[in-house]
Write a structure and sequence with these properties.
25% of the residues lie in helices and 27% in strands. The protein is α/β, with parallel strands linked by helices. The relative contact order is 0.20.
């Protein structure tokens, strides 16, 4: 499978978002790929407020079965969520469970005016009624569960997509 260029997709995603920005819109990236993407979108969109980053490890509905993620990171939301339009950013949308967990965590910080989802790639395979408002690329056919699509960041800061076979 030929994967699209992540840098091109990132620019396309910024152009989708740009016309819908409110003056006080904030970005929150889901760690780790969504965090990298949110930082890049922040720069491309020229937003004043730095992006937040969220780790959903303790909010996952499979936490009891799988335990703690191997490398949990601290959630960092350096702004008020109250009555603020939020764009939740993730690299790859799959089942919708990570998005659900992130929304639950965001509400622990306050009541946003709205939450919209922006993703680089929709790989198909939804288990929950979650859809991205902004999506740079949708795979023509859902990936099998034995394959993962992963966003990586090089030392130079460039974003790339990689297909991983489990």
């Amino acid at each position: 499978m030929q994967l699209p260029d992540a840098e091109t997709l990132c620019r396309q995603l910024a152009e989708q978002i740009r016309p819908h920005l409110h003056p006080n819109t904030v970005l929150i990236g889901i760690r780790t790929g969504g965090d990298w993407l949110a930082r890049r979108l922040h720069t491309l969109l020229g937003l004043k407020q730095p992006p937040g980053a969220i780790d959903t490890s303790f909010y996952r509905d499979d936490y009891g079965a799988k335990g703690l993620h191997a490398n949990p990171q601290r959630t960092n939301i350096p702004f008020s969520i109250e009555n603020t339009p939020v764009i939740l950013v993730d690299d790859v949308l799959y089942t919708g469970r990570t998005t659900r967990a992130a929304i639950n965590e965001i509400f622990d910080f306050g009541r946003p005016a709205s939450i919209e989802l922006a993703v680089l790639v929709d790989r198909g395979g939804r288990q929950l009624p979650i859809a991205a408002r902004y999506c740079a690329h949708t795979l023509p056919e859902p990936l099998p569960a034995s394959q993962n699509l992963q966003l990586e960041q090089t030392e130079a800061g460039n974003l790339t997509l990689r297909l991983i076979h489990a």
